[in-house]
Write a structure and sequence with these properties.
The structure holds three protein chains of three kinds.
Chain A lengths: L2 E3 H15 L3 E6 L14 H5 L4 E4 L3 H13 L3 E5 L6 H12 L2 H4 L9 E6 L14 H5 L4 E4 L4 H13 L3 E7 L6 E3 L13 E4 L4 E5 L2 H15 L4 E5 L2 E3 L4 H10 L2 E8 L4 H10 L12 E5 L8 H7 L3 H12 L4
Parallel strand pairs in A: 2-3, 2-4, 4-5, 5-7, 6-7, 10-11, 10-13, 13-14
Antiparallel strand pairs in A: 1-8, 6-12, 9-11
Helix pairs in contact in A: 1-7, 3-4, 8-12
Chain B lengths: L1 H6 L3 H26 L14 H8 L7 E3 L5 H6 L4 H8 L33 H14 L6 E6 L6 H13 L3 E7 L8 H4 L2 H11 L3 E5 L3 H16 L5 E6 L17 H9 L2 H12 L4 H24 L16
Parallel strand pairs in B: 1-2, 2-3, 3-5, 4-5
Helix pairs in contact in B: 2-3, 2-12, 2-13, 3-10, 5-13, 6-7
Chain C lengths: L2 E4 L9 E7 L6 E2 L4 E6 L4 E5 L4 E4 L8 E3 L3 E6 L26 E2 L6 E2 L1 H10 L17 H9 L15 H10 L17 H6 L13 H4 L14 H16 L2 E9 L1 H17 L6 H13 L7 E4 L2 E4 L5 E3 L1 E3 L2 E3 L2 E2 L7 H16 L13 E5 L18 E14 L5 E14 L5 H16 L7
Parallel strand pairs in C: 14-18, 18-19
Antiparallel strand pairs in C: 1-8, 2-4, 2-7, 3-6, 4-5, 6-8, 9-10, 11-20, 12-13, 14-17, 15-16, 19-20
Helix pairs in contact in C: 1-2, 8-9, 8-10
The chains are: A alpha/beta, B alpha/beta, C alpha+beta.
């Protein structure tokens, strides 16, 4: 199978859906001629024209609300917020309107929109351009939150998100854009709310999101040399979560390490820990549920500090080893 | 001038507009009574005194056109043809209400019927209005949207971003500012004037107009022009209807920020009384005929009240329905 | 300058030392090198010399007290020198003065405690300050201490709640193990699943043997002690293991031995005439059992943890009673042998068994065991399965019994009681029942062997 980048996979998903369904359009800043700040919509203005690729001035709130309104009367917009940090500006329309219109109107409205946003640190962009805020939106009923970790998952999940009849927040990690992987050429939909076991193992379950999935898989290879076999589970959709594969994995291994880039306090790991502790897996835990996540601080500019702010492969290896060796 | 306006409207249409204004007035008065009797949960925002702005604007629409409102939106919903029983039931939080009792006063909507909802966030509807316009234009749809907001919303970032985007995409939306002189307690005159509010139109690059919001026919004429402009592909307009709300912002408002004289002065300019006077003077209707219209309106509201009070509450079993679409 | 007198280390693995005897007392002038005390370790009592000359002062450790090695136990001061602050002895723990009614009151609390309660608390590590006293004046009594011991205390330090992972608790409950008896290998002594899996089952304590010598003292001693060795030990371990680990089900059947006896009689007449091997009852039973086992393979099998092994060959062990034990030599491949061969083998094996002349290969490889206590007059008994086999047949004596015949008439027949004990993990009730029915039919009509 041919290999393409995560970014290309995102673009292919949007292109194929826009070809298939004329109700799909894009709206965002610098997505037209510029091709998107990260190149996600490169070439799409030429293919679809300014009628369907809507460039906007700096109006996060306005464009998010516009997507909401268009969706309300039956269109299927894909809005792009250039950096997840700017979701702060878009939140009124996303949280108070898009998430709630259906419920508020007694189930008699739908808002089928996707809001894509690049997130995460590692590019030296510092405090205002590096955050991972997905858990804010996991907290909002009415929204769906998706975080793909591979090009294959990105294309399949984005196609499903566009076809979904709800407001979906689709979070792409900037450092994943250049990663390559096998991706089928034809359109395919990976159902939302399906967790994926990316690697099987018997000694420890690692539940990881976004870029931490590949780091965890790399850590797993190193741990295998020490005779520790790690199982890596990728939820892919954070809300609504598919908990069953995670629970079954923890029952199998008896130990779980949750890894995500976002700040630990109030991060998705707490939600996962609660889900696991409340499940049947509790009776099979032979070690505490451990979360490895970003430090409780903004992302600093200095490169070394930036790297040390979020979990790296060595951190995952060390923590996994400690758990399996009964030191935790 | 005035006579021309009056003569260009048929007797049926005039009766219809008058009926709607009385229904709004009766609905609001009943809402107030029900609330004071403890039958209504939460709060409500009455639009008594603003009937001409609602009916005058919405009477320009085809039945399939859209409106998108604000939190003081009962009048807008009724003007758009809402079923009074279902509206009252929603107000009472009942299952059969427009939003199954989940929305209440501030969020009444009937998307299928073209009413894209009242909204609890000041300025919350404006960006969505732009999006509705984008969708209509993309589909080559000839329908238009009236997007209502107040002077309070005119200070929000949402308003300004929406103006910019509306002009950029030339959306078929008429933005109607119901300037009732106060945000909640903050007087509009502290930061702007009705001229400057209307002046935003020019500033952002769209046609605009300012009206005596309590003059039904003046409102209707201004909005009609804007609607025709939008429907023919001419893009958005901004209309400022200068009016007044007789009651406080909400039920908990003690009206300390304005004087009794001011309130009474505006009440003298009661839009319903003015239109009624006009029709009688014109010879279109007798006082008795209008009395009948008024009485029918109040009876319809009374029926709606009974209907609402006798309707069933939503069930707990259905509590989580409607969060996600399948 | 004060010189420390320390408890010295004199043995290789010594960690503490006890002051045996002070040879000098507080205030005595001593010379460097002079013996000033005797200390005791596990192995020796040894004198300790003064490390300096001066006045022996500030004795901190009294005779009979034990301290870790290198602990300062006294000082040697220069004349006029004061003791270092660390040496100032704490106010001596006064022996609590008895109250007027003989109860002992602690001076550092308000509440008195009875002497037996104090000793009991000290022995069992109970903190007396936390025990409410129910005696007069709030006195803490023995009953109070007993109640405190019975109550779970706030957890930590192994008192009360157990620190264990959820997985450990689940496994312990499944296996009927007591967490309190398991040592944890996790952080802070947390009990992990592995600890429970490795733990031995906690067996309820056996009641103490009565002291017979005390109860009936006279010669010879009331109890003769035999050490558990050799065959006895092996039998004890094997019987216990089999009984504990294999769920036994037992099936008894009464066999009418009329025809069996006739057949054996005929066989033995022939044997006498031809001078060939006499057929014992046991040999013929072995032959019949093997023929029937061939039709019921699940009784000729073994439970092997994750598998069940069904054996092709039928090798029957015949239990032989010895003077001080029992042994089970095996007749291999019974199905292929004639009754005469079997009889000869059984006789040979039994004889050599009693003479302790069997070789190891002769007691291995059995797939089924028969134990015949008929010659001893035992009517009926059930045996313990010979691991790792799945079944054993216990054969009792053949005795005349009153039974109804086919027409309901009362007759007297020779009846033998047999009891099959089977491993219920492998052998279901119905399977065993079918085997027994088949065996009964064939024993009662040995001509069926011809089929």
């Amino acid at each position: 199978m041919r290999e393409i980048t995560y970014l290309e996979a995102v673009r292919e998903a949007m292109t194929q859906e826009m070809e298939r369904d004329e109700k799909v359009f894009m709206i965002g800043e610098d997505i037209g001629q510029y091709g998107g700040a990260f190149g996600a919509s490169f070439g799409m203005l030429e293919q679809f024209g300014p009628e369907r690729i809507l460039d906007t001035p700096i109006t996060e709130l306005g464009l998010t609300g516009a997507a909401t309104g268009a969706a309300l009367i039956g269109m299927r917009p894909i809005a792009e917020i250039m950096f997840m940090d700017f979701m702060t500006l878009a939140s009124e329309q996303l949280v108070n309107q898009a998430a709630k219109l259906r419920f508020m109107f007694g189930g008699k409205a739908t808002v089928p929109m996707v809001l894509r946003t690049p997130a995460g640190s590692g590019t030296g962009a510092a405090e205002h351009h590096s955050q991972s805020l997905e858990n804010w939106f996991v907290h909002i009923p009415g929204l769906k939150v998706v975080m793909p970790s591979t090009p294959y998952d990105a294309k399949g999940l984005l196609i499903s998100s566009i076809r979904d009849n709800n407001a979906v927040v689709f979070v792409e990690h900037k450092l994943l854009y250049k990663t390559k992987g096998p991706v089928p050429e034809e359109p395919y939909a990976i159902p939302l709310s399906t967790s994926d076991v990316k690697r099987e193992g018997k000694d420890l379950t690692i539940v990881a999101t976004s870029i931490m999935v590949s780091k965890s898989l790399a850590a797993a290879e190193l741990l295998a040399e020490e005779g520790i076999e790690v199982e890596v589970v990728d939820p892919r959709t954070l809300r609504p979560l598919d908990p069953e594969p995670i629970i079954q994995s923890v029952i199998k291994t008896g130990r779980v390490l949750i890894v995500h880039e976002a700040v630990k306090t109030g991060g998705y790991g707490g939600e996962l820990a609660g889900v696991i502790a409340e499940s049947k897996a509790f009776g099979y835990l032979d070690a505490p549920i451990v979360r490895l996540a970003g430090r409780d601080m903004p992302i600093p500019y200095n490169r070394t500090l930036e790297i040390n702010t979020v979990p790296q492969i060595e951190d995952i290896v060390a923590k996994a080893r400690d758990i399996v060796q009964g030191k935790v | 001038m005035m006579e021309n306006r009056v003569q260009s409207i048929s007797k049926e249409e005039a009766a219809e507009m008058l009926r709607l204004m009385y229904e709004v007035r009766a609905f609001e008065e009943q809402a107030e009574k029900s609330y004071m009797m403890g039958k209504i949960h939460g709060t409500m925002h009455l639009s008594i005194g603003q009937e001409a702005s609602a009916i005058g604007s919405i009477s320009t629409l085809e039945p399939t056109d859209y409106i998108l409102g604000h939190h003081r939106g009962h009048g807008l919903c009724i003007a758009k043809g809402a079923d009074l029983n279902l509206m009252m039931a929603e107000f009472y939080g009942k299952e059969v209400g427009y939003c199954r009792g989940r929305g209440g006063s501030m969020h009444i909507a009937d998307v299928a019927g073209g009413n894209l909802g009242a909204n609890g966030v000041v300025g919350g509807g404006l960006p969505m209005a732009v999006g509705v316009g984008i969708g209509l234009k993309m589909r080559g749809d000839k329908r238009v949207l009236l997007s209502f907001f107040g002077d309070g919303a005119a200070s929000t970032g949402a308003f300004h971003e929406s103006m910019i985007l509306a002009v950029l995409y030339q959306v078929p939306v008429v933005f109607i500012c119901e300037n009732n002189q106060y945000a909640m307690s903050f007087p509009a005159r502290s930061w702007t004037t009705s001229e400057r509010l209307a002046g935003f139109a020019d500033n952002y690059g769209m046609p605009g107009a300012s009206t005596d919001g309590n003059n039904l026919l003046e409102v209707k004429e201004a909005v009609q022009t804007a609607v025709d402009h939008a429907r023919s592909g001419g893009g958005p307009s901004l209309i400022v209807n200068n009016t007044y709300r007789w009651r406080g912002h909400s039920k908990s408002d003690r009206n300390l920020y304005r004087t009794q004289e001011e309130i009474e002065e505006w009440q003298d300019a009661d839009p319903i009384r003015r239109y009624r006077k006009l029709l009688v003077a014109d010879g279109s209707f007798t006082e008795d005929e209008i009395d009948v219209i008024e009485k029918d309106a109040y009876e319809a509201i009374e029926s709606a009240r009974v209907f609402a009070e006798e309707s069933a509450e939503p069930s707990i079993e259905s509590i989580e329905e409607g969060v996600y679409a399948p | 300058m004060a010189t420390d007198v320390i408890m010295p280390k004199v043995d290789m693995d010594q960690e503490t030392g006890t002051v045996g005897e002070w040879l000098k007392k507080e205030g005595d002038t001593v010379k460097q090198g002079e013996d000033i005390l005797v200390i005791e370790t596990d192995k020796v009592a040894i004198e300790v010399e003064a490390p300096a000359s001066g006045i022996l002062s500030g004795i901190l450790v009294q005779e009979g007290e034990t301290v870790p090695i290198a602990t300062t136990i006294a000082y040697i001061l220069e004349p006029g020198e004061a003791l270092p602050d660390a040496a100032k002895p704490a106010p001596a723990a006064q022996e609590p003065a008895p109250t007027s009614d003989g109860m002992v009151a602690r001076t550092d609390w308000e509440v008195p405690v009875t002497p037996v309660a104090r000793n009991m608390a000290a022995a069992s590590g109970v903190d007396l300050t936390a025990v409410p006293g129910s005696g007069p004046g709030g006195r803490v009594t023995k009953k109070d201490v007993e109640e405190a011991l019975a109550k779970p205390t706030p957890f930590g330090n192994g008192q009360g709640k157990v620190y264990a992972t959820p997985a450990a608790r689940r496994i312990a409950e499944e296996r009927g193990l007591v967490l309190e008896s398991i040592t944890g290998s996790g952080p802070d002594g947390r009990i992990q699943a592995a600890d429970v899996l490795n733990a031995q089952a906690v067996v309820p304590e056996m009641p103490a043997e009565p002291d017979f010598d005390k109860l009936s003292p006279s010669s010879p001693p009331a109890v003769e002690v035999i050490p558990l060795r050799g065959m006895r030990r092996t039998i004890a371990e094997r019987m216990a293991a089999s009984y504990q680990q294999i769920p036994h089900i037992n099936f008894t059947s009464r066999i009418d031995m009329t025809k069996f006896n006739e057949v054996r009689g005929e066989l033995n007449s022939y044997a006498e005439k031809t001078g060939s091997q006499r057929i014992s009852a046991t040999a013929l039973i072995v032959k019949v059992v093997a023929a029937v086992l061939a039709r019921h393979p699940w009784l000729n099998s073994s439970f092997q943890e994750e598998e069940i092994h069904l054996y092709r060959d039928i090798n029957i062990g015949v239990a032989v009673a010895l003077e001080t034990g029992l042994i089970v030599p095996v007749v291999r491949d019974v199905v292929a042998k004639s009754v005469g061969q079997i009889a000869a083998e059984v006789k040979d094996l039994s004889t050599r068994a009693r003479e302790e002349q069997l070789v190891p290969s002769e007691v291995r490889g059995g797939t089924f065991t028969i134990s015949n206590l008929g010659p001893f007059g035992v009517e009926q008994f059930s045996a313990i399965i010979n691991r790792p086999q799945a079944a054993i047949l216990a054969v009792g004596a053949t005795q005349p019994e009153v039974v109804p015949d086919a027409d309901g008439q009362i007759v007297v027949r020779p009846i033998m009681h047999i009891t099959l004990s089977a491993d219920h993990r492998v052998v279901d009730g119905a399977v065993a029942a079918k085997f027994i029915a088949d065996l009964k039919a064939t024993l009662e009509s040995p001509v069926l062997l011809l089929l």
